[in-house]
Every structure is written in structure tokens, then in C-alpha cells.
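pasting for ref
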Amino acid sequence: MVTLFINGLKLQIEEGSTLLEAARFLGFPIPTLCYMDGLSPYGACRLCVVEIGEGDRARLVTSCTYPVEEGLKVRTASARVLRARKIILELLLASCPQSKTIQDLASAHQITRQPFRQEHEDCILCGLCVRMCEEQMMAKAIGFRGRGEKRTIGTPFDLKSEVCRLCGGCIYVCPACSLRCTYTEPDKAICGGCANLAPPCVEKEVFDDMMCYMHPCVACEIKKD
């Protein structure tokens, strides 16, 4: 067993577990996009970042791929973490603004406006479909091709796959395939964004960490002394 601290709480968890598994065991919410139970962690979207360490040596890591370590101190909702997640979601929303999954994640993180130019991509390279096809369907009909900005997902040489069973598993897990009506105006890019309440404990810069993890946030009144 490994002993570590998450948001100040001492926890013993089996060696080999990830920080995401440890945090969820305690009930601390960590948003994910490219992670799914039953599939190997990939760490592509970076949305599950948490802060480890203290002081000047503190850094952000992806909780879905980072293993637990003895004595490690983890913060899942510090101001630094929330800022990083917000920027990541804004970039994802710019790439695929029509995605219902991304819209809902952005809305839950109090993003009410699209600050970047919308590109309307049909893939965010999260790798869910590739892992689903290989690890659950045992087909390996699709995979990554190319590198950098030329990287895409598809069949080898864009030819019809002989091993694809048309199961639809890739479509089922794809966040870009879960569409919602969208607009080109930045103020209307996120459906229902104006109806969300921001956590005042962090957003108002009263504290550096969230003071509670109630969902949805009850928007309690917190004042500086």
C-alpha cells in the first residue's frame, strides 16, 4: 500500500494505482475527456491535470497516467489547476465547438464565451476510438497516422478495413460525434453557459483551493477578513 495526501486528506491505496483513481476513491471530482473506464489511460486531452508537490517545486501532471507515490501531496482543485483546465477547455471548444460533450464540460467550468477562433474540426485526437477498437473490439481496424498537425485517425491508406465489424463502438465513445447545434458568435458558442454558478471560493480569489466539493456549487458567501 502507498500513503499519500490528496487535498490534505491522508489516503492509503494499492501500489500501481493512478492519482485519478485515488482522487475518485475519496470522492474528489476530476473531469476527463480522453479517459474511459475499461480502456488504457492515454493522457491526450490533459483535462485531468492535478498539482503535485509544494512551493516552487509544485507542478501539473495528468492524473490518469501518473502513478501514486509514497508521501506525495496532491491538489485536485487549486487555482492553478482550475486555470489550466479552463484554458484546455477553451482550446478544445475552439477546435470542436459543435461537440455536446465539450460544451457541457466547458459550461460546468464556468466558460460562457469562446475566446479563440472556431475551427470546427471533426476530431480532437483523444484516441478513444482507437483504444476502443483495439482493446474492447479486438479489431485494430483504425489507428493514428502521421505526426504533429498532420496527425489523423483512420484505416491504413484510407482503404476499407477487412477487420471492421461495423460495431459502432468508435462512434459511441467519440466526443466529437456527440453533436449539438452551435453558433458562430462567440457569446453563443456554449449552450446553457449563462446558467452556471462559479465556485466563489476560488473564482473570487479568496482562497487558493476550493473549500468544498459540493456539486453543483451552492455559491456560498465567503468574505475576506
